Batch of 2 targets.
Target 1
Amino acid sequence: MILHIARTALIALKRDRGALVLSFVLPLAFFSIFAVIFGGQHDATPKVHVIVVDEDKSEASQDLVKAMEKESSLVVATAPEAKSKNAPHPADYTAATAEAAVQAGDAPVALIIPSGFGQHPIAFGPDAEGSAVELLNDQSDMIAPQMVMGLLQKDAMTAMPAVMAEQGMKYADKYVGGFTPEQKKVVEDGLADLRKEVANGEIGSGTTSGSDDKGAGIIRVKTRAVVGENKKSPMISFYAAAIGVMFLMFTASNSAGALLDEAESGTLERVLSTRVTMTKLLGGKLVFNTLLAFVQLVAMFLWGWAVFKLDFWSHVPGFIVMGLCTAFAVAAFGMLLASACHTRAQLGALSTLVILIMSSVGGSMFPRFLMPEAMQKAGLLTINAWAIDGFTKVFWRDLPLKDLWPQVSVLLAVGVLLFVVARRVARRWETA
Amino acid sequence: MGATQQTGTARPLVVERLVKRFGDLTAVNEVSLAVGTGECLGLLGPNGAGKSTLIRSIAGRVIPDGGSVAVFGAAAASTEARMALGWVPQELAIYPRISCTENLGAFGRYYGLKGSGLEEAINWCLHWAALEDRAGELARNLSGGMKRRLNMAAGMLHRPRVVLFDEPTVGVDPQSRNRIFEMIEALRAAGAALIYTTHYMEEAERLCDRIAIIDHGKIIATGTKEELVRNAFGSRSQVLARFSGDEAAIAAWTARNGGRMVEGTAEFTVEQATEIARLLDDATKARLELVDVSLRRPNLESVFLHLTGRELRD
């Protein structure tokens, strides 16, 4: 009898495509996404973008920059990217433009190597001389500055052995009482050899193998957060947007599913026999679902303000712009899903699959800067990524409304496109 | 109900040679019919005969493959036709989670009503459907009969002059059914042109001035009940006899005497009542034990059976 019950359940499962998708396709899709992000396959370590400004232009600073450029886990930019292939090469970053670039989110970290760095690149003790390298960072990315800091120290040790030895001699002179002329001769010979080896690429290659490198040393770094330094609750706005968008999508698809209920009950057909056309009907539902999604976002951000000290009230205009654009795109997305499905069960399975995948790739589950390059680019195909980027610009970077144009344009265009497709798909309900 | 004016000289509803196919299946096959002011035309046929497809074609919800539909001269699905037409679908096409008043308000707005006009229409519909005391009740909490009445009322807000009822009494208890009949009779009395589809001959007999019998998408006979019976049976009557005993022997005897078995009853068509005596005498000779016997005028069920060889509720 137990087998009969199991057999009946198996037959029912075979007929239920939605359940099959949720049982097999969704776990596989999720497993693959997480494997790509965290599994280390396909060179999956995320590269950190760092802007480097060399104000010193000394031998030491240039060696340091070269070594950092060779780091496989860093993408070093000394100048902004040219806007097009034929455009003139933009001028190198300055301390000011580098700071502005971090504030705008072009890179999470900038390093400023100040003038005079080459005089005293290595710092020992509390009264160390010389200018410190300045590390400007965006607080929303906790990992990038740590990584850049570590690699900077490693490169200092591996790329500037001669400078370090020279500095060591100076410290020995200052604190130990100096070398004898013979000792100085030996050290200077050694320094000459070191310079030769660096020039030949035998040491200071910047590779992470490190075991053959003969250099060692440290440099002073002064860290300053240029984004989020005054935020009371870092990351709250990010998660309000990230989680909000994901649940908005679930709500929107569920709400749009009313269309399927109405089609099944005959109400849709009756409505279409009145003066209401399919375009008006879908338009009405789009307006409702957009407002519903917007109200949901308002509730989520107000909750963030009330409970987690999110600075909501000084960002209201940006919130309204991003909130409405996001709500519109998400509502149109829900309409398309509902139009494409024939039953509630189908809609449930399809929406769960699509929304969870979009949310994981688009940054609703974990920040996109943790993902490999390719995955970060793939994220741009999702509503989540554009919405989160926009809300981050408003709440994290405090950027003015005009800087939201890429996110606003994409979300509105996506919303219009999805609605047009939904309208086309809905033709099947119009007449038989 | 202010549904009596007619636009120009055009008849309320004229359907000519209407054809609708779904793949290989011809659901509506060269159907022609017309309904006049204050007239109720019954579409009588079994499930799957094509009644709902015909109704949906008239309502503009199905694009026909041939023929035409004119509502007061306007083509089906045109704004004029939509505003002149009321459609009560077989399904409960109402919003279950909102109240009766809100349902009626929603459909009224879909027909372009607003303000006092809408309010008046809602009140009229609530009164017509005897739902005034349940106006604020959520539709899903109503009884089956009340839901049906609300379903009907939702098609009446714009005071249509032609109303299509697609089996409005499905799943309704006899008491509610009577209430629905009264609603329909009130509409007819007010001058609306009605089409009423059903597979219950009692309903067609009670409500309809004329009846069109439809089978396999074709109208196979049209007329008043009396005309249909007269055309099919002339002045003949039907003898119904029930016997106890071997069913095979009863069926064989019935067939031998030109009758047929319908739900365990032997049915014969006779010219004269005196033929009953001959039949009963023959049954005695065949050693069949008679339980009861009756004589009746043929009804619509008999007409359908006569025309199609099948029972109406097959």
Target 2
Amino acid sequence: MTPAATTFHLPHHVVHRHTTSEPPAVRRLLIGVALVFLSLFLFLPLVFVFVQAFAKGIGFYFETLRDPNALSAIKLTLTAAAIAVPLNCVFGVCAAWAIAKFDFPGKNVLLTLIDLPFSVSPVISGLIYVLVFGAQGWLGLYLSADNPKFPWLQNFLVEHDFKIIFAVPGIVLATIFVTFPFVARELIPLMHAQGRSEEEAARVLGASGWQTFWRVTLPNIKWGLLYGVILCNARAMGEFGAVSVVSGKIRGQTNTIPLHIEALYDDYNFTGAFAVASLLAFLALVTLGLKTWVEHKNAQLNEPEKLP
Amino acid sequence: MSNRRSRPKKIRVLPGFKLTLGFTLFYLGLIVLIPLAAVFWKTSTLTWPQFWQTITMPTAVASYKLTFGASFFAALVNVVFGLIVAWVLVRYEFFGKKIVDALVDLPFALPTAVAGITLAALYSDHGWVGQMLAPLGIKVANTQIGVFIALTFIGLPFIVRTVQPILEDLDPELEEAASSLGANRWQIFCRVILPMLAPALLTGFALAFARALGEYGSVIFIAGNIPMKTQITPVIIMGELDMFDYAKATAIAVVMLVVSFALLLGINVLQWWTNRHNTTNLA
């Protein structure tokens, strides 16, 4: 057989047209169905939030946001996120370092346990802290015990009115729980894929452990880390179910932004509820924008490695 | 050479294993495992008949039916439309595709309370969508359909984001081969593409279903929480908590946790299967 016969191909576009695509009418239909479905379920609600938020004019909008209860809710949400996100960030880096760079038995079990908070209903995430720290929980039983183990500790806690549930610490704990896996689950596959050869090379060349981490590992994982932090922060600021169990919903004191939205909605102040909700909807849009940008950056970072 | 040194100890070049693993286990125990253990501790204060009576009370049973049913159908609808969305995003070009792609994650990013009040207002009798459905005799707000709508909203990204990467990596040669052997486009889709997407679709379905079971914020506003009719299981737990009946709330929470953990196990097996399936395709 001649070489020409074995290398004969149909022109590429001909093959392409018939085998890997649909007739134009089907294409248009599918695109139409997808867009109608997404418009109804995603775009319409998004537009609706902003339209409703300004339904009573821009004056009412800013009046709602300047309300002391709203300001206190914003402050509490920022505080909870400012504690929860860095803690889970440190945890995520530690967990990823241990799991991705070393081999040890029980790794898969550990991975599953780290993912646990994602499969627990938000209401239950709040409930577990009530059971530990609530009046009928371990802490409550200890505080009301007649013969406690460390009487000085009980005295100290009672004297200082130590409260976790229906107070700020409970809100922070519940926020930490629901955002627990975000950073770790972004970093573990990333660091696993990068392997340990670069770090080992740095060590052999005399770098200390910290130098290796700051100069080799961190630049490699920075986009993944940022991605995890963005997702973690969005959830931390928006958490509703878990926080609503532990907060006690005292206006101006233990209401976060989502709880303040619920309070306004229950008061039939719909425009007010949507005005505050527009803050979180805006945060969601910023999150999606950053996420897309980081994904783009990450693709750029990985491209040169794929080329050769 | 002494006997002890004959088995070489594995040398770790990288430092920090004990420190990082130690902190990981400590933090995991403190934040997740000990508090979760409290659920089982609290349940043990109930006797077995008390526990059984609590988890089988009529309002709870009605809530299980609603939660499971609505979650199941929402995940099912998302499998169909999620596949279409993923397909369109991977295979076709159209105006605004990048924005659409980014917005698919909106249900992940939008806080559930915001989604909840928005859907409730949109589908109320005077809302933009509700007033169009009212003449048709369809009532969404304060009905079980409302629960279904909220859970569909929540579940969409799970299917799209599990199917999308698999669809992107599909080898076009397989479709070309099927075509050259005489298959038409529909046959290729059903016999070649769909079987390869099946594990991903099933994983996406399971993820969306698992998320829907525990969902709270986006459902409660549109559902209206009418006992025996539109109360989902997390609302039942919340109701017991409001009455400070922690033992009852915990008993129902145990039911949910057991189901969630079983699903988590199933999803892990599915994902392992998906990965194996894909590597076999590549080989």
